[in-house]
Amino acid sequence: MMKNYFIKCFHYIIIIEMRVRVCWRFVKVVAIAVLVFTVPSLFCRLTFSKRHSQTGPLPAEDQRILSPKTYRYIFNQPAVCKNHTPFLVLLVPVAPAQEEAREVVRRTWGASGEDCLTLFFIGVSNRGRPQRLLEENRAHGDIIQMDFQDSYQNLTIKTMMMMNWLSVYCSHASYAMKVDADIFVNVFRLVKHLRSSPRHSFITGSVISDGVPRRDSSSKWYVSKQQYPEDTFPWYVSGAGYVFSTDLAARISWASTHVHMIPLEDVYVGLCLQVLGVRPVYSRTLIPFRNLFEIQHLEYDRCTFAKLIILSRHGCVVSPMRLIPL
Fold first, then answer.
1. Where are the bilayer-spanning segments (predicted)?
2. Rounded to 5 degrees, what angle do the CA atoms 258, 238, 317 make?
3. Are the C-beta atoms of 248 and 278 separated by less than 8 Å?
């Protein structure tokens, strides 16, 4: 009998030890996950320089290129938020001739319910057909056009005009998203994610922490030493698609009066955030560990795609139209 008693005790000890080991492994996994999530953020907070904010505003001539007073509206939608406050405003930069891209967005993720508002921002181009654009705007009432030249090099101008428009005409919205027309947005997943996100000084997307300027003059992303003398960029979010609380729109517009323009609009927004002392945050899931703003290549998988917020058309093997049923 005593033998059976000791055997039972031995078994209990083994079971308890196994459970302790399992619990300890779980604690270690959680600790590692916490470190993965927090250490980069803490490092960013400790090293986030405000050197640009120590300087005064740019000379008036340098401010002029990004000032909304420099440009005039050809089409505007000043009343879209007057009697309705959207939870999320989707700001889509497109070229005047990209009529098909605008229509695809309208028929897919751009039509995501009363809580969301989708607007297209364009400049002017020699390739545009003003009459077609006029008719399109009359039919949909979602085009905002200003009289700067629409080009890749002027994306920073377009982005700052978007920020200004948001701060002037739709500042009561909770969040805004700058997103390219060739990106698929899982708006339902995004809205769910934002319900528990901060409402102030918040910006998230695919965070780039190791950006460096390209000095090769033949590169599409060339930045000269004169334009940007530093050897590294501050943390910024990929311009493919990023989300921010709308209070940042006016503050980024203000910060632009302290930062010399560079033609990389997403990096430029990062420089403005540096002036404000605001750092972009990661949007990731813990289990499985995944970036919700995916701009890398992914094979098509319905379940995986349904859990992400954005997908690049160039980063997956299917067209946006195939992703509609998610």
1. 22-43
2. 160
3. yes
